[in-house]
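Researcher: Quick test of sequence recovery. Tokens follow.
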């Protein structure tokens, strides 16, 4: 069960509709497929989504660090020695998406080898997760129409609204319209992606509260330390750390300094092993968590639902799982399914998904 080879395969799939938000815009999935080959002939897979405007990683940097650094260092290691593998990866700073994809692919390989789903290996709390959908920057009518479509077509009853524009009235009016036009039992929360200052976010609080906003994610840059503390102390809406809390040390810093009082966990950002550590820290401190989204493909979404369904804490809230529906295509062989607002974990060992070789051949860019 030793690692023989790690492949990093770049590919590009366009989005049918771009997702726009305060820190960037995604028009194509220029991701990297990770394949970990073991001495037993097992291949574990994962998807690495570069987000240069958030974490600094690009498609080329992910391929390079895996080909030149991580791959050679991990060949010969047992896939069961995940703590040793984590220590090797952590010799190199940052590169959390590349590290996370390797970690997920190794967990996938372990599950396949043992014939057990990763979700059960992690905790096995449930076999499903309720779904939340992210709504990007568009006119109020377009966003409302999109939300109604996902309610009617997929039964989704939770939405994350991207905010952070100027003038702020654009977003505050949008939130008010969605709160008024959608059923009262539909959860609405917002994500500013650091688009506002702390003072602007504080000014937005009354309007957001009137629009029944349940969570306020990354309202301003966490480095705006004093303003962020003042915001958290002022807000009756929980302030969620996302890009400011990728690793346990970041989580403890932000929670103990008053920079946030809830945490978004993203498996694409650090993998399952890092996510377990973040979750344990949050549980020990009595902090709410939710499963976030890196604008993932179905391979990435399968990893999120595997983790989110495995624990009571992550299962208690809807996870952001559905934005792959905006992609023109996907690499996955058997598509995921959302019914009545719920996604079940794929049936099968490991993460439970596989790659369609014809689609990989069509979309890979290293041919």
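Model:
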């Amino acid at each position: 069960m030793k690692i023989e080879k790690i492949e990093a395969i770049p590919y590009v799939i366009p989005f049918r509709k771009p997702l726009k938000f305060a820190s960037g815009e995604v028009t194509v999935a220029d991701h990297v497929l990770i394949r970990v080959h073991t001495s037993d002939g097992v291949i574990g897979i994962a998807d690495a989504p570069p987000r240069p405007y958030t974490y600094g990683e690009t498609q080329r940097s992910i391929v390079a660090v895996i080909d030149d650094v991580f791959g050679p260092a991990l060949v010969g290691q047992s896939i069961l020695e995940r703590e040793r593998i984590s220590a090797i990866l952590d010799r190199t700073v940052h590169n959390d998406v590349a590290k996370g994809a390797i970690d997920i692919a190794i967990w996938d390989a372990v599950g396949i080898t043992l014939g057990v789903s990763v979700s059960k290996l992690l905790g096995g709390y449930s076999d499903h997760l309720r779904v939340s959908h992210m709504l990007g920057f568009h006119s109020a009518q377009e966003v409302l129409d999109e939300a109604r479509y996902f309610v009617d077509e997929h039964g989704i009853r939770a939405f994350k609204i991207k905010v952070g524009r100027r003038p702020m009235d654009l977003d505050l009016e949008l939130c008010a319209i969605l709160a008024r036009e959608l059923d009262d039992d539909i959860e609405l929360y917002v994500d500013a992606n650091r688009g506002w200052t702390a003072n602007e976010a504080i000014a937005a609080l009354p309007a957001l509260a009137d629009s029944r906003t349940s969570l306020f994610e990354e309202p301003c840059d966490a480095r705006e330390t004093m303003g962020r503390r003042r915001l958290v102390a002022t807000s009756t809406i929980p302030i969620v750390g996302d890009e400011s809390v990728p690793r346990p040390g970041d989580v403890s810093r932000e929670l103990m300094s008053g920079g946030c009082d809830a945490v978004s966990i993203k498996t694409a950002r650090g993998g399952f092993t890092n996510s377990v550590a973040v979750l344990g820290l949050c549980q020990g401190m009595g902090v709410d968590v939710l499963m976030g989204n890196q604008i993932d493909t179905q391979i990435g979404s399968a990893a999120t639902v595997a983790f989110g369904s495995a624990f009571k804490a992550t299962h208690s809230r809807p996870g952001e799982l559905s934005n792959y529906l905006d992609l023109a295509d996907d690499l996955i062989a058997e598509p995921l399914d959302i019914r009545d607002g719920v996604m079940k974990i794929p049936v099968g060992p490991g993460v439970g998904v596989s790659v369609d070789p014809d689609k990989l051949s069509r979309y890979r860019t290293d041919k």
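The longest strand covers residues 3-21.
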